Amino acid sequence: MNPDDRHRTAERPRELEEHHGVDAEMWGKFRAIHGPRHLLDGAAPASGFLLGYSVAGAEVGVFVAILIVVALAAVRLVHGDSVRVVAVSVLVILVFSLFVDITGQGRGFYLPEVALCVVMTVLFGATLLTGKPLSYTICRRIRLEPAVLADPATRLRLHRRITVAWFVFWAAHVLVMLPLYLADSTVALILGKPALVVMLAVTWLWVREKSGEPTSRAEAA
Q: What's the pLDDT tens digit per position in 157-194?
């Protein structure tokens, strides 16, 4: 083995260790913003609908989905979660369930989500053309973006990248979900909700990391 090979071999464990450290850090930050819990909250009602729909039809699927979201809401309220956030979660499932009744089809449960994907693709794409990235506007509105910007141009460049990522995210959903919806492939449509939760978490980490602010209370301490 020549010296270069020995050097590369010695570097591999260090690279693997650094990679593992980064993964562990990102997982810790994801847990700090309750990412796993939000994944469960997003996927459980949809999974319940799918199970009920597969076994006994759309009406049973709707009943199971509502039952699950109400049970989760009760648990979240007991643990001190915001009433507004919990109420929105319940309202979303109620709206989705309403579309089953409106369309008379099980796939109607996913119609609002498909429509949302189309609308968001247009919105994020349009703001890229105007030069005012939508992610920047949203982050300022919810106070995720720092109130005082040391370098506004750099932050705008960051949000152009974030907005491009969201545009691709929504466009990919349209390209995948619309054909599935038209083909009445209800099982595959469930994948959209967990993906959205992950994307929101990644965006939150991305913005906070680049702003230089701590991403958890522990880091702030």
A: 999 999 999 999 999 989 988 888 888 776 666 655 66
pLDDT at residue number 165: 95
Q: Give the per-residue pLDDT at 126.
A: 94
Secondary structure of the chain as H, E, C letters: CCHHHHHHHHHHHHHHHHHHHHHHHHHHHHHHCCHHHHHHHHHHHHHHHHHHHHHHCHHHHHHHHHHHHHHHHHHHHHCCCCHHHHHHHHHHHHHHHHHHHHHCCHHHHHHHHHHHHHHHHHHHHHHHHHCCCHHHHHHHHCCCCCCCCCCHHHHHHHHHHHHHHHHHHHHHHHHHHHHHHHCCCHHHHCCHHHHHHHHHHHHHHHHHHHHCCCCCHHHHC
What is the spatial distance between Cα 61 and Cα 66, in angstroms, rounded to a whole number? 9
The tokens describing 50, both together, are 């799918």
**pLDDT, average across residues 65-81:** 86
Burial per residue of 18-53, b for 16 or more beta-carbon CB atoms within 10 angstroms, e otherwise: eeeeeeeeeeebbeebebebbbebbbbbbbbbbebb
What angle is formed at CA 104 by the lines to CA 121 and CA 111, rounded to 5 degrees? 10
Q: For residue 150, give the nearest of 216, 206, 212, 208 by alpha carbon.
A: 212
Separation of alpha carbons 59 and 38, rounded Å: 25
Q: What are phi and psi of 144, to 5 degrees?
A: -80, -30
0.85 cut: is pTM over it? no
At 36, list the tokens: 């796993």
